[in-house]
Amino acid sequence: MVRKIFLGTLLCCLFASNGFGQVLDDEMERPGDKVQAARVAYITRWLNLTTQESERFWPLYNEYEGEMDKIRTKYKPFKRPEDMTDAEAERLIVSRFEMEQELLALKRDYFQKFKTAIPTRKIVQFTIAEKEFRKELLRKMRENGPQRQGNGRRRN
Questions:
Q1: Cα R_g (the chain), whole angstroms
Q2: pTM
Q3: What is the mean pLDDT of residues 110-127?
Q4: According to the 3-state scheme, what is the secondary structure of the chain?
Q5: C-alpha to C-alpha distances, 148 to 38, 68, 97, 119, nearest whole angstrom
Q6: At a CB cut-off of 8 Å and minimum separation 6, what does 113 contact?
Q7: Cα–Cα distance measured from residue 72 to residue 96, given in angstroms and rounded to the nearest whole number
Q8: How far is it, in rounded angstroms, from Cα 68 to Cα 99?
Q9: Which of residues 17 and 52 earns the better pLDDT score?
Q10: At CA 76, angle to CA 80 and CA 103, rounded to 5?
């Protein structure tokens, strides 16, 4: 009888801990999620996007970024430049030109799609807003970066 109770309790604990682990995994954020959320908020404010514009623009832009990542991954070199022969390095350079052509074609295609979501003036402002966000992010990283060590205490 004691064995059955012990075994039942053990099984319950195992299943319960597995369930808690899933909850914690779902709540965990990836490192870039906070930055991405801050980027979206910053750019949305910068461009003064309406709710409708945001609802149309951001899914398109996320799709665009996904396509850009696919193209970049396709052309990612398998070797480091210092480990390449001259012929491999030349092929890499030529493939980079091809990648840039594909990226340019993608930009042109998505420019047409972006025009359906937001005014052209805001598309131009978007590139400025992105650069400003990067500057702001780097500034904050410089301010906070070297001071954080180990358990989050400041070093003097």
A1: 24
A2: 0.67
A3: 94
A4: CHHHHHHHHHHHHHHHHHHHHHHHHHHCCCHHHHHHHHHHHHHHHHHCCCHHHHHHHHHHHHHHHHHHHHHHHHCCCCCCHHHCCHHHHHHHHHHHHHHHHHHHHHHHHHHHHHHHHCCHHHHHHHHHHHHHHHHHHHHHHHHHCCCEECCCEECC
A5: 21, 33, 41, 42
A6: 60, 64
A7: 9
A8: 10
A9: 52
A10: 140
Looking at residue 78, its pLDDT comes to 84
In this prediction, residues 106-128 reach a mean pLDDT of: 95
* Short-list 97, 98, 79, 76, CA closest to 88: 79
- The length of the chain in residues reads 156
pLDDT value at residue 33: 84
Closest to 99 (Cα-Cα) out of 78, 68, 61: 68
Q: Which residue type, as a one-letter code, is found at position 133? A: F
The residue behind tokens 């702001």 is: 136
Tokens, residue 37: 């959320």
> pLDDT grade, residue 110 (50/70/90)?
very high
